[in-house]
Amino acid sequence: MKYNRIIVWFRNDLRVHDHASLSSSIEKGKEVVPVFCFDPRNFRELDLGISKSGSIRTKFLIESVDNLKKNLQKLGADLIIRIGKPEEKLIEMALELKADAIFFTEEVTEEEKKVENNLEKAAWGKGIETKSFWQSTLFHIEDLPFPINQIPEVFTQFRKECEKFSRVKKTIGLPTKINFPSESIDMGYIPKLSTFGLPDKPISSKSVLGFKGGEDEGKKRLLTYFWENDCLKSYKETRNGLLGADYSSKFSSWLSLGCISPRFVYEEVIRYEKGRKKNQSTYWLIFELIWRDYFRFICRKHGSKVFQIQGIKNNVDNWSKDKNLFFKWADGLTGIPFIDANMRELNQTGFMSNRGRQNVASFLVNDLGIDWRWGAAYFESMLIDYDVCSNWGNWMYIAGVGNDPRENRYFNILRQANAYDPKGEYIRHWIPEISQIPASDIHQPFELSTSDLNKLGIDLGKTYPHPIVEFKI
Ligand SMILES: Cc1cc2nc3c(=O)[nH]c(=O)nc-3n(C[C@H](O)[C@H](O)[C@H](O)COP(=O)(O)OP(=O)(O)OC[C@H]3O[C@@H](n4cnc5c(N)ncnc54)[C@H](O)[C@@H]3O)c2cc1C
């Protein structure tokens, strides 16, 4: 054993399976001390007047931390909780507990990197070793067929080269036992939403799923989606859906906080392919996980540029800063039903389909011309599956400041609405006040005459807004 006591700092890796820093600390340390820090900077109010992490997302985090604590207890350990800056709290704890090392998962983006660097500097000054581990992608950074600074800018090239020249490492087995110190330690407590000044906001019963955080729930969702409901074999055909639990996997929230690892999902896909069926759909789930990897590696390559208005393309456009229009978009009050329904789903459940995300993002940046970073910040606050790289990467892409060789990712909202919600069921689910409009007109109520609308009991401007932009059909 090289170390007497190792602190394992948990971040977006809230699981005990396939966990590199936990497994390595068990191997290298006589005793292991798992710690999670709720960093108040993640709950601060942004300039837009919203919390950096809203209620629904924070609740999912709290549930995930709670489940991690239970799973660590089953292995003979526990999870110490602190509220404060990790670079301070972890050093205090290391000194107090006489730990000789801190192990953690490496992150890639600006704020997270700053915390890591400050921690490493402070630890070095006190003679405490630090060691970081790579573990949130399908392909390990060491197995990429190119150095980070030469990651292809175009997704297809990235994917093809990874598929040809790389391989997915096997998952790391579940630990059987963790040696936790026997002395009395202040374990801290799991905070409530009110600790961060956030109101308790239950997920609407209209949600696609009753999302609950934690490794156990993530694994349960996989069991249901792949094995019980047998949905993987038709994923490619259903993945652009809008309503219901099973049109797509809904794994994103658990992947974002690391409650399940992408390699675990990958191994389950392979098991399904061997035991049930192998087809385009089973491959397509892996294809989407490679998108996830791609954004993480692109963020690693381009650093803080992914948060800047010009993105990684250095395009400087005249973005609007119209807060009034922005909050009409955010509140689902644009008068364009397909946009409003999606934004209401996001606000009431913390989730939105991929099809919805592409449309509302395109509408904000292309139709309203509003600063794409406001949209990304709003999603950051609201999305239960917020992932810094997937979010800011996708927004950059749609805003035309990312890597897409097709330049402008413009979505024709009405065409999309009619194609993906031809019967208007999605609109009726989220905008009951216009549910009486027949399917042929429900996506464009503003095209109906006042008398036709009145006959349906709709008064545009009163019961549902006039559109905030003009649309040509
Ligand atoms: C503007 C915008 C913002 C987004 N923000 C996020 C975010 O913060 N967090 C997040 O996890 N995803 C984000 N996405 C990607 C995608 O919309 C979600 O991952 C997906 O809708 C989650 O549902 P699912 O798990 O059922 O996906 P599935 O269709 O079942 O896909 C399986 C998994 O593949 C990954 N994946 C799928 N599509 C993408 C994609 N376009 N980019 C990256 N990974 C993908 C996810 O991990 C997902 O769980 C964003 C997309 C857009 C257009």
TrEMBL record:
The record marks 319, 372, 395 as: Electron transfer via tryptophanyl radical. Binds 1 FAD per subunit. Binds 1 5,10-methenyltetrahydrofolate (MTHF) per subunit. One of its GO terms (molecular function) is FAD binding. One of its GO terms (biological process) is photoreactive repair. Signal peptide: none annotated. May have a photoreceptor function. This is Cryptochrome DASH. It comes from Aquiflexum balticum DSM 16537.
